[in-house]
Amino acid sequence: MIEINNVSKWYGSFQVLTDCTTKVAKGDVMVVCGPSGSGKSTLIKTVNGLEPFQKGEITVDKVSVGDPKTDLPKLRSHIGMVFQNFELFPHLTIRQNLTLAQVKVLGRSEEEASTKGLKYLDRVGLLAHKDKFPGQLSGGQQQRVAIARALSMDPIAMLFDEPTSALDPEMINEVLDVMVGLAQEGMTMMVVTHEMGFAKKVANRVVFMDKGYIVEDCTKDEFFGSPRSDRARDFLAKIIH
């Protein structure tokens, strides 16, 4: 579903990604972890072209992300993206947040978009809040709305960029529970997160990054059982402790 081959990226003279190669099969849940500044968020944003890259190739469902001829808005409409800070429109109701992209990008009627949006709002347990504004919801609720909005576009894969890092500790589980449900339903997912409990529970594969390199790319059991690199062992010792 997602193939990343020898991808490198620079900000000016600073190299933020170096020869990154990995792949996510259909139905896989890949967790990308590592210390702050390791390139995790940059890597996931290159997958749908939010961050350009200067070297290598990325394909999503056999479409090349870096090809100048690729229709990036169309490609992005098939890849759900959930950000750290929700990115909901504060002046629109929850229902309007769920329907806007469906109408503008996918060309659905207001009625069809509303039906689809409310179905997923119910899926994340927030149907009763459909006529509220984002500012009236907690952070955890807003993030669940953001997930429902992404799912309303019928994505072939979902990208999560540290979806719980802006939340209070007691709100984290309500978001992770929705993500666990998606994983169990077979959604292809690439998740940047520090939530190792989530990784242990649902990840098929774990990618560990450090200083712009992919240091480990292995199964969940290999990563938690016997990481090959000293850097990953050190990271795990600190984060699990």
UniProtKB/TrEMBL annotation:
GO molecular function: ABC-type amino acid transporter activity; ATP binding; ATP hydrolysis activity
Keyword flag Transport: yes
Cellular component, GO annotation: plasma membrane
Xref: PROSITE patterns: ABC_TRANSPORTER_1, ABC_TRANSPORTER_2
Membrane topology: Peripheral membrane protein
Gene3D superfamilies given in the database record: P-loop containing nucleotide triphosphate hydrolases
A Pfam family reported for this protein in Swiss-Prot or TrEMBL: ABC_tran
Keywords: Amino-acid transport, ATP-binding, Cell membrane, Membrane, Nucleotide-binding, Transport
Every ABC transporter domain range: 2-236
Localisation: Cell membrane
Family membership: Belongs to the ABC transporter superfamily.
Protein name as catalogued: Arginine transporter ATP-binding subunit
Encoding gene, per UniProt annotation: artP
